[in-house]
Design goal:
heterodimer; B: alpha+beta; D-Maltodextrin-Binding Protein, domain 2; 16 helices; 8 strands
Chain lengths: 298, 388
C-alpha cells in the first residue's frame, strides 16, 4: 500500500464528520436560505404548498419581499432589539459572575470558594423547563420575592414574571454553570509561579489579576462569552415560559411564525437573521480557538 | 413509531410508484378491499389495524387509547386500533404530511385523522362519506357536515364558555358587550390565553372580531380563505388592544390550562375556557366548586365539533369507516360524554337521561363555527402584531 501523506490521511479521517455536518446541517441551511429568497424547488416544494403569505419566484432572480415583510413589522424589530439586549446583558453578567467565583476560588480557595463554585453548577442538573417555571413563580405577583418584601413592609416590590428582566434572570441561571466550570479550570491552569513572580516584583493583587490572570485566561473567557451569547440568542424555553406575550425574544417568535401563523418563509427570514448574528459571535470563538492552537503549538 | 411505519411503507411503495407513474388508481382498489386483503402495496400495515392520529390534548389521547380503542377491538374481534400521538406537532405539519402522501399517492401513515381539518376535507384529501358507508351520520346535525363537504364526520363537540367565580361575581355577563364592559370595570381580573397557544383564547379573540364583521363576510371567512376581507377585523383588534390595560398582569398566558390555573388560584375571576376542560377540572377538583360556566350571546363564543377524517388513500379505509360509524353509536357517544365531558355529536335525545342532565345550562346543539384554518392562522398572526 502506498504511503499516504499525513495531510491526505488527516483529510480522510476528518471527512466522515464533515460529510455528516454537510448533509444534516449545511444542506438544510442552504435550502432555508434559498427559500427565504423565494426559491421553492426541491426540498422546499411541499413547504411552499402549505405555507401562507409566501413570496415565491419562478425565474432565477430571488425576491426580498419576505425580508421586507419581516423588517416592516414593528413587532419583529422590537423583538430583535429585545433579543440583542438580553443576549448582551446576560452574557456580561455571566462573565462577571463566573470570573468572580473563579477568581475567589483561585486566590482564596477555602470552603466558601468551593461552596460557591459548587452551588453555581447546580442549575446544570435541573431541566430548563422546570427551572423556567420555578423562576416565573418565584418572581410572580404572589411569589416568594414579593411575599418576603410584603412581610418586611415593602408592599409594591417589582414583579419580574412575564418581563424581559425575568428572561435575563433565566438566561443567567441556565448559563452560569458552564461559565463557572470553564473559568475555574481556566484560572486553575495558570501556574502559581507566575502569580507569585508578579507579587514578588511588587504587584498588588489587582495588578497581578490584570496583568497575569486576565491575559492568560483570554481563551476560556472568549469561549464562555461566545457560548453563552450563542446559547441565549437562539433560546426558546426560557423566553417562552418566562417572557411577555410581545415583544419577546426571536426564539418564540420564530416558532409562532412557523407553526402557529403558518408562515414558514417569514420564519426562515428570522432564522437567517439569527444565523448571521450567531456567525458574528462565532467568529470570535474561531479566532480564540486559532490563537489557542497556535499557543499550544509553540 | 409512526414515522418508522410511514418510512417503511413509503420505501415499499416507492418502486411500485415508479413503475406505475401516472396510474392514479393503483392504491384505491387496495384501499376498498383492505379489510380482507393482506397483499397491499404497503405490506407493513396489518389489514385490520386502524391507525388513528390523535391531535388533541392528553384527555383526547386517553379517550382513544384507554376507552374507544380497546372497546372497538372487543366489539369487533380481529380488528385493532393503534393510537398515534405526536407531541406538539402543529396542524399544519400534519396537513403537510397528509398533502404530500396524497400527492405522491403513498400511505399517509394514518387511517383516521382526529381533529378539525376543514381545508383537508374540502381540499379533497379526505374521503367523502354517505349514509351508505357511515349509516350513523343520519343522527348527526347536517349543518356540521356541509362545511366539510361530507369529507369528515363530527364525533364530539366542545364549545368555549365563560367561566366565572361566584365568590366574586354574582351576576355574570350575558352578552359579549356586557362581558367587555365587565372587563374594563374590573381591571386585572380577566385574561385569555394567546390565540396561537390554545382555542379558548382564540375563541374570545374570534368572537370579539366577529362582533364587527358583516354577516356575509363572516360566512365567507368561516368557509374558506379570503385574506382580502381581513380589514373587517381592524375594529375588533382595536377593541382587544384597548382591553390590554385591564388584562391580568397585562400578559396573555400560553395555553388553555394556564388560564384555568389562574382561575383556580383566584388570581382572576372570569375567563373564556373550553367546556370539556372546565367540566373535567370541576369534576376532579382542578377548579373550585364556586366556579360556574355560562354561555354568552351576541355573538356566542365559537365552538365546534372535532371531526374524524379518513385520508383518501388510507390503507385500511374500510376498517376505518367501520370505526367511524361505531363511534357514532349512542354507547360510544356516552363514553365520550362521561370520559371527556365532551358534547355528543348525535342528537342528545338518543342518550340516557342521566347523561343529558349533565349539560343543563349549556347549549350543546347550537355551536357557532370558528374561522377556517387559514383565516384563524392569519388571525393569530395579526393578533400577535396588533394586540400582544
Amino acid at each position: 500500500m502506498a504511503r499516504r501523506t499525513p495531510r491526505l490521511r488527516a483529510l480522510v479521517m476528518a471527512s466522515p464528520p464533515v460529510l455528516v455536518a454537510a448533509a444534516f446541517i449545511g444542506l438544510p441551511v442552504v435550502s432555508a436560505v434559498l427559500f427565504s429568497f423565494g426559491y421553492f424547488g426541491g426540498f422546499n416544494s411541499i413547504l411552499a404548498e402549505i405555507g401562507q403569505h409566501e413570496h415565491l419566484v419562478t425565474g432565477t432572480s430571488g425576491t426580498l419581499d419576505a425580508y421586507r415583510d419581516v423588517f416592516g413589522d414593528s413587532e419583529f424589530r422590537q423583538s430583535l432589539w429585545a433579543t440583542v439586549l438580553v443576549t448582551a446583558a446576560s452574557t456580561a453578567v455571566v462573565l462577571v459572575l463566573s470570573w468572580g467565583i473563579a477568581l475567589y476560588l483561585r486566590l482564596s480557595g477555602g470552603r466558601i470558594g468551593k461552596m460557591l463554585a459548587g452551588l453555581a453548577v447546580v442549575p446544570m442538573f435541573i431541566p430548563v423547563v422546570i427551572a423556567s417555571y420555578a423562576i416565573l413563580e418565584f418572581y410572580s405577583p404572589d411569589g416568594f420575592l414579593r411575599s418576603l418584601a410584603a412581610a418586611v413592609g415593602w408592599s409594591n416590590a417589582p414583579v419580574y414574571g412575564y418581563t424581559m428582566v425575568g428572561v435575563a434572570f433565566g438566561q443567567i441561571w441556565t448559563n452560569l454553570p458552564f461559565g463557572v466550570l470553564m473559568m475555574t479550570s481556566g484560572l486553575n491552569a495558570v501556574p502559581d509561579a507566575l502569580i507569585e513572580a508578579a507579587r514578588d516584583a511588587g504587584a498588588s493583587t489587582a495588578r497581578a489579576v490584570r496583568s497575569v490572570l486576565v491575559p492568560m485566561a483570554a481563551v476560556p473567557t472568549t469561549i464562555v462569552a461566545t457560548f453563552t451569547a450563542i446559547g441565549v440568542i437562539g433560546s426558546f424555553t426560557v423566553p417562552y415560559l418566562i417572557g411577555p406575550s410581545a415583544p419577546n425574544m426571536l426564539g418564540p417568535l420564530m416558532t409562532y411564525t412557523f407553526e402557529s401563523f403558518n408562515q414558514p418563509q417569514q420564519a426562515e427570514v428570522m432564522a437567517v437573521v439569527v444565523f448571521l448574528l450567531s456567525a458574528v459571535i462565532g467568529a470570535f470563538y474561531v479566532r480564540a480557538n486559532l490563537r489557542g492552537a497556535k499557543e499550544t503549538k509553540r | 413509531m409512526r414515522r418508522r411505519t410511514f418510512l417503511a411503507s413509503a420505501l415499499a411503495a416507492a418502486p411500485a410508484a415508479a413503475t406505475l407513474a401516472g396510474c392514479g388508481v393503483f392504491k384505491s382498489d387496495n384501499a376498498s378491499s383492505s379489510a380482507n386483503s393482506g397483499a397491499s402495496a404497503s405490506g407493513s400495515v396489518a389489514p385490520a389495524q386502524v391507525r388513528v392520529y390523535v391531535s388533541g390534548d392528553v384527555n383526547v389521547q386517553n379517550l382513544w387509547s384507554k376507552n374507544l380503542g380497546p372497546a372497538f377491538a372487543k366489539a369487533y374481534p380481529g380488528f385493532s386500533v393503534k393510537v398515534l400521538v405526536e407531541g406538539n406537532t402543529s396542524a399544519s405539519t400534519v396537513l403537510a404530511k397528509l398533502g404530500a402522501a396524497v400527492k405522491t399517492n403513498q400511505d399517509p401513515g394514518m387511517d383516521i385523522l382526529d381533529g378539525s381539518f376543514t381545508t383537508a376535507a374540502t381540499g379533497g384529501l379526505l374521503a367523502k362519506v354517505s349514509t351508505a358507508t357511515v349509516p350513523n351520520i343520519a343522527n348527526v346535525d347536517a349543518a356540521l357536515l356541509t362545511p366539510v363537504d361530507y369529507a369528515s364526520v363530527p364525533y364530539r363537540g366542545s364549545a368555549v364558555v365563560l367561566a366565572y367565580n361566584t365568590k366574586y361575581v354574582s351576576t355574570p355577563p350575558k352578552t359579549l358587550d356586557e362581558l367587555l364592559a365587565w372587563i374594563t370595570a374590573n381591571p386585572g381580573k380577566f385574561t385569555y390565553n394567546s390565540p396561537n397557544s390554545g382555542g379558548s383564547g382564540g375563541a374570545f379573540v374570534a368572537t370579539t372580531l366577529a362582533k364587527y364583521v358583516p354577516a356575509a363576510d363572516q360566512a365567507k371567512m368561516v368557509a374558506g380563505y379570503v385574506p382580502n376581507l381581513e380589514g373587517d377585523w381592524n375594529q375588533g383588534f382595536a377593541t382587544l388592544k384597548g382591553l390590554g390595560s385591564s388584562i391580568y398582569q397585562h400578559v396573555y398566558p400560553n395555553g388553555n390550562q394556564a388560564v384555568l390555573d389562574l382561575l383556580n388560584a383566584g388570581s382572576i375571576y372570569m375567563a373564556p375556557v373550553w367546556s370539556d376542560m372546565a367540566l373535567a377540572a370541576l369534576a376532579d377538583g382542578g377548579l373550585p366548586s364556586t366556579v360556574k360556566l355560562t354561555t354568552i350571546t351576541d355573538p356566542t363564543f365559537t365552538g365546534g365539533a372535532a371531526y374524524l377524517g379518513v385520508p383518501n388513500n388510507a390503507a385500511n379505509k374500510a376498517a376505518a369507516l367501520k370505526l367511524v360509524n361505531w363511534v357514532l353509536e349512542p354507547a360510544q357517544q356516552e363514553t365520550i360524554v362521561n370520559v371527556l365531558a365532551g358534547y355528543p355529536a348525535i342528537k342528545t335525545s338518543l342518550l340516557s337521561s342521566a347523561v343529558q342532565s349533565r349539560f343543563t345550562g349549556l347549549d350543546t346543539s347550537n355551536l357557532r363555527a370558528g374561522y377556517s384554518t387559514e383565516m384563524s392562522t392569519d388571525m393569530n398572526s395579526l393578533w400577535q402584531q396588533k394586540v400582544a
